[in-house]
Structure formats: structure tokens, C-alpha cells
User: What shape does this take?
Amino acid sequence: MRHTHAVPHAWIDTDAGYASADQIVLATGMPIADRGLSFAKVRALRSYCVAFAYDGELPEGMYISVDEPTRSIRPVNPDDGPAELARLIVGGNGHPVGRGDSEKDCVDDVIAWTRRHFPGAEPVATWSAQDYESHNLVPFVGALPRGLGRIRFATGYAKWGLTNAPAAALRLSAEIRRVPRRERPSWMATLGRRLTVPADLGRGGVENLKIGWEATAGWTGALRTHVPVPAPPEGEGVVASRAGHPVGISTVDGTTRAVSAVCTHLGGVVSWNDAECTWDCPLHGSRFAPDGTRIEGPAVGDLERLPRTGRPSGARADE
Assistant: This one.
């Protein structure tokens, strides 16, 4: 994405083609441009939900716990969909992307907790979501730095997208339409407020220390295991070292694949997500499919695919 004085509009060039406009809004979870270093001012979180079939009495309304681990509960009403498929949704166990010991254990824990409190509940569907939380818990909304006022973005909804996203859209549209500040509601000024309070700066400092630790631990951990390694069982992945370079080896749907385990964003070593069979970066939340295809950013490129893939289960995976 570039802008020059010779070109009157902002423009974007992708594999799908070229487009230009007077204004561009990056409506992505994390801005796909690193200007402003938004990725360093938020943390990426994954959380889990399970839908249950349940014949017992349901609570009225929606609830969320104030203690940890977080639990959210809501009944499924007839207006929400076929009640015979699911009548209860329970969520929780959020954690920074790529830093959980086992994402599958997070899902299993939600199921076990629900069965304790709602005897007879049986899971019928599971899913997860990724959210971004700013260090001052206020979304970043506004003009992207070095965009000459033509490129805007919004991120950091902190799991409250149903309210924060419309609020962000209202602010962005007010800016694009050049609504005078005095005519905008006061809450618009709050959205996008930068980190200025010591507590906010402290939270940001702690998070970036954790990121530094993850960056170091990922590389040292990968170097402890060297290829060749046995092909992982179905649904599992492992990171090993090949000539000093971390390699991610996984088996999904009977196919064993090898990819570079170095995130294409800032070089963090990815870890295996055993609930969704993805490679997740513990630094800033980029995620990739088993074959290396990028799922979500801030990375904009795929993991490099390495040779000798597609071994049958039980074979060895070396290079």
C-alpha cells in the first residue's frame, strides 16, 4: 500500500489486482500494514465456545464470570435457531495466541465444567475466536500513521465487537465525511486514545517482555530437537531443527507436511494448535494452516513449504 504526490488517491496492489480510492479502511482484525506498530500495542487472544444439547432447566439471560478462568453462559432461544440442535452455549478459557499448553485441553475443560454444572449436557459443536485487546483496553480507531489521512483502521475490540465495531465504524465514517469535531459525540474522542497513563504503559511493557521471552524460548526449544523425527500422529504437530532452522512437521487428514516454523511477520517460532490443527505465532497472533497458508495476520505471507511432505502415518519426517 503506497501513496505518492503524483497519485491523487490511496491505492492497493494485490495478487487479485489493483484498486485506488480517496479513502481506504483496513477492516481487518489486525492492520495488514505495520505502520504505527499496532501489533505491539495489543495482544492477540483466543477463546473457546461449545454448544450443548440439554434437556434441563436453562438460566434466563446471558452471564459472564468475574473470576478466572472465564466462563460465559447463554441459552439458545427458539428465535436463535433449531432448539433441537443446541440449547446452551458455554465459552471461556481465553489465552494469548500460541501460548497455551494445549488448545484441545481448553475445549475439553469447558465441556467438563459444563457437565458438572448442567448434568446431561452433551456437546454438539465447538469453535473458537481470535480477538485483539489493547493495553489500555480501549480500541485503536483512526488514521493509520504515514497514510496522509487517506488510510484508516480499527482494532483492539477486546471481545466486544458487537458494540465496539459499530462504534468504530461511526467514528471512521465521521472522519471520512469530515464531520466537525464539535458535532461528534464525546465518546468518539475516547476511541483510539493512545497509551498515556502509567498503568497502560506498564501493561504494554509487561506484554512486550513476554513477547521477547516467547521469541527466545521458541528458537531455543526448536534447536533442542533435530530432524529426522517420527511423523506426528494424526492431528499433532512438532517443531524440530534442520541445520539450525526451525521446521514445523504435522499430520492432518493422513498427510504429513513440513513447513518453515518461522513466522513471516517478525520471525517468531510458531507452535502447534492441537484443537484447530494450525500453526500459531506466540508473538503477535499470526496463524497458518498445516500447509503453511496464512489464515490471519499481522503476517501477510505464508510459511515456506518444505520438501518431503505427504508421508503416510508412521513414516519419518526429516527434511
Q: What stands out?
A: The first strand starts at residue 10 and ends at 14. Residues 1-5, 195-202, 309-316 have pLDDT under 50 and may be disordered. Residues 43-134 form one domain.
